[in-house]
């Protein structure tokens, strides 16, 4: 029979074995498309929105946020971006304009979140074409959440929409113009609106039959100030449809650059590019 | 399903003990010639990106140091977003064989590679969907290296065939082309090597 001390010694390794077991379970991947992740890496949009709303912005206050795109496969750059963004004063959140992953795999979404959760502010995403390859759509919805969603923060209503038409082989359902119009119809108490999508409307990956309906939805809705996008890995700004809506395309993680957007009043904004 | 397959794999092993009893008759029967196409082993595994459960058969060559396995794996929809059937081919080389007990061998090192094709992927591209070389990677076919080890129990030969049999439990660490590409794009330490590893656990019966 073993003495109690021997038993105790054996029990000491229980946590180590349990930890190895857990790591093992994590590694027992059924497929790269297997999107099982620990609970802390699920429903991130909902959780990050709750974090944002826990620090409300008073009506009339200037809003400042960081906007970038395409984190895909740039984990070294993500670390540098987090360091830089954490030094920005007065920002409320960070937007990633799609292509969180490179291959639409849940592990990638998790790797990105492991970097971006070190931000001092919450971050929010919109789905990109790379997030929709393979079984990425399911992985994205499991890890982040809805492909189209909206929220109000301070005086601004944000509408985020899936514009990755090519991933649906141009089925004329994406972007969902009806949903967009419904969302933009009401300010829900905000003063201005901002739309964010991954593929900009004049890109060849955006359904050409929906470009004008998309632009018109923004141009005719009450007080849409900015149309934000990513995809091109290159900064660009312009009022492309002569309707008062300014379209801003972000740099990407790979370009070591992001923009800081400051908004106040009804339509005032300032865009500042920051290199990291 | 999993339990059933496990039982099928383990049954020959249990049969072995029964077969040892009439020792003289077993020795008297000459080994039946093995048909050239007959697999030398069956296997069942979980993980490694090849299925929640994957069953297969394979051949041992070069004095059992080289093996090639064909597997068919299954991933339920709740884990991957769609039900996947995964067909895989593995080639493995195990140069060392340690006799740790009269009936127990350890193969401390197995190196190999696999290629797998997943059927049932939601968006793996249709003709005309993308311009040429839009994505450099395949959405349904993966390749990757394997590194593993194995413990083998040498079971007595089955009386009917006289073929030597082995029952093995193995593990394999692996990864795939996409994880490797992610790792090598981040050599400043942004992506730890451990994060790209997958684990497979399996049993193998040579008969």
UniProtKB/TrEMBL annotation, chain A:
GO terms for molecular function: hydrolase activity. Pfam families: Metallophos. InterPro entries: Calcineurin-like_PHP, Metallo-depent_PP-like, STPP_CPPED1. Residues 63-235 form the Calcineurin-like phosphoesterase domain. This is Metallophosphoesterase. It comes from Hymenobacter lapidarius.
TrEMBL record, chain B:
Keywords: Signal. Residues 1-18 form the signal peptide. It comes from the Bacteria. This is Outer membrane protein beta-barrel domain-containing protein. It comes from Hymenobacter lapidarius. The lineage of its organism: Bacteria, Pseudomonadati, Bacteroidota, Cytophagia, Cytophagales.
């Amino acid at each position: 029979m073993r003495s109690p001390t021997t038993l105790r010694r054996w029990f000491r390794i229980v946590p180590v074995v349990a930890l190895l077991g857990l790591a093992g379970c994590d590694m027992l991947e059924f497929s790269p498309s297997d999107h099982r992740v620990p609970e802390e890496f699920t429903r991130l949009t909902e959780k990050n929105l709750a974090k944002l709303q826990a620090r409300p912005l008073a009506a009339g206050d200037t809003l400042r946020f960081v906007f970038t795109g395409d984190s895909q496969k740039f984990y070294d750059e993500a670390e540098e971006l987090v360091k830089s963004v954490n030094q920005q004063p007065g920002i409320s959140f960070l937007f990633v304009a799609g292509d969180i992953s490179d291959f639409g795999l849940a592990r990638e979404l998790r790797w990105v979140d492991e970097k971006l959760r070190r931000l001092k502010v919450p971050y929010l995403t919109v789905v990109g074409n790379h997030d929709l390859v393979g079984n990425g759509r399911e992985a994205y919805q499991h890890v982040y959440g809805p492909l189209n969603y909206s929220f109000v923060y301070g005086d601004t209503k944000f509408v985020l929409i899936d514009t990755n038409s090519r991933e649906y082989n141009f089925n004329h359902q994406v972007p969902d113009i009806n949903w967009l119009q419904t969302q933009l119809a009401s300010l829900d108490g905000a003063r201005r609106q901002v739309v964010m999508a991954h593929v900009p409307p004049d890109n060849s990956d955006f359904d050409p039959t929906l470009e004008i309906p998309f632009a018109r939805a923004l141009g005719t809705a009450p007080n849409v100030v900015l149309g934000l996008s990513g995809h091109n890995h290159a900064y660009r700004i312009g009022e492309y449809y002569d309707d008062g809506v300014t379209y801003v395309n972000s740099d990407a993680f790979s370009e070591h650059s992001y923009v800081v957007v400051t908004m106040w009043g009804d339509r005032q904004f300032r865009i500042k590019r920051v290199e990291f | 399903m999993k339990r059933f397959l496990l039982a099928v794999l383990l049954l020959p092993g249990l049969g072995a003990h029964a077969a040892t009893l009439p020792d003289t008759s077993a020795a008297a029967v000459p080994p039946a010639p093995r048909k050239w196409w007959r697999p030398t082993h069956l296997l069942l595994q979980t993980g490694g990106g090849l299925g929640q459960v994957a069953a297969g058969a394979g051949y041992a060559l070069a004095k059992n140091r080289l093996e090639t396995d064909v597997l068919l794996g299954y991933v339920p929809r709740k884990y991957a977003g769609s039900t996947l059937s995964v067909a895989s081919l593995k080639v493995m080389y195990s140069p060392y064989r340690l006799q740790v007990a009269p009936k127990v061998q350890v193969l401390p090192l197995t190196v190999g590679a696999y290629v797998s094709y997943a059927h049932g992927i939601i968006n793996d591209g249709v003709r005309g969907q993308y311009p040429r070389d839009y994505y450099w990677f395949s959405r349904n076919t993966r390749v990757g290296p394997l590194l593993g080890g194995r413990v083998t129990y040498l079971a007595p030969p089955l009386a009917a065939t006289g073929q030597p049999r082995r029952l093995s439990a193995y593990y394999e660490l692996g990864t795939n082309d996409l994880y490797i590409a992610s790792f090598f794009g981040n050599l400043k330490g942004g992506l730890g090597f451990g994060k790209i590893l997958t684990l497979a656990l399996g049993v193998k019966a040579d008969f």
